[in-house]
Amino acid sequence: MSFIQKKISTVPSIFLGITLLFTATSALAHVKLLSAIPAMNATVTDQPKNLTLNFGEEVMLMNIKLLDAQQKNISLNYKVNHDLKKSFNVPVPSLKKGKYTVTWTTMGKDGHNMNGEYSFTIQ
């Protein structure tokens, strides 16, 4: 095989590799938490009645926890609902002033679990 023939035969292989790379990247993309109430890293003065999580795509909220500054779990009355939604409202009990961390786990349409956390402070 001549040098030119070898170079021409590698072009389809390179194209196939690039195509597979982009396909794999989009398949591994995870749904992100777009916004929350109370907002991420916010300081609020009023007691929140709910935690609201807004995701970029429809997901199933598998788990949500609220932790205080000492990492003590604050009981939330959340039951997993198998509906896929972009937004979830979870009632919260009365909270004292301090820093809180929200942790969550979702499952996307593709079956992949995603998790994350954010904090807010009540003054």
Automatic annotation (TrEMBL):
<dbReference type="GO" id="GO:0030313">
    <property type="term" value="C:cell envelope"/>
</dbReference>
<feature type="domain" description="CopC">
    <location>
        <begin position="30"/>
        <end position="122"/>
    </location>
</feature>
<dbReference type="GO" id="GO:0005507">
    <property type="term" value="F:copper ion binding"/>
</dbReference>
<dbReference type="InterPro" id="IPR032694">
    <property type="entry name" value="CopC/D"/>
</dbReference>
<protein>
    <recommendedName>
        <fullName>Copper resistance protein C</fullName>
    </recommendedName>
</protein>
<comment type="function">
    <text>Involved in copper resistance.</text>
</comment>
<dbReference type="GO" id="GO:0005886">
    <property type="term" value="C:plasma membrane"/>
</dbReference>
<dbReference type="GO" id="GO:0046688">
    <property type="term" value="P:response to copper ion"/>
</dbReference>
<comment type="similarity">
    <text>Belongs to the CopC family.</text>
</comment>
<keyword id="KW-0574">Periplasm</keyword>
<dbReference type="InterPro" id="IPR007348">
    <property type="entry name" value="CopC_dom"/>
</dbReference>
<keyword id="KW-0479">Metal-binding</keyword>
<keyword id="KW-0732">Signal</keyword>
<dbReference type="GO" id="GO:0042597">
    <property type="term" value="C:periplasmic space"/>
</dbReference>
<dbReference type="Pfam" id="PF04234">
    <property type="entry name" value="CopC"/>
</dbReference>
<dbReference type="GO" id="GO:0006825">
    <property type="term" value="P:copper ion transport"/>
</dbReference>
<dbReference type="InterPro" id="IPR014756">
    <property type="entry name" value="Ig_E-set"/>
</dbReference>
<keyword id="KW-0186">Copper</keyword>
<dbReference type="InterPro" id="IPR014755">
    <property type="entry name" value="Cu-Rt/internalin_Ig-like"/>
</dbReference>
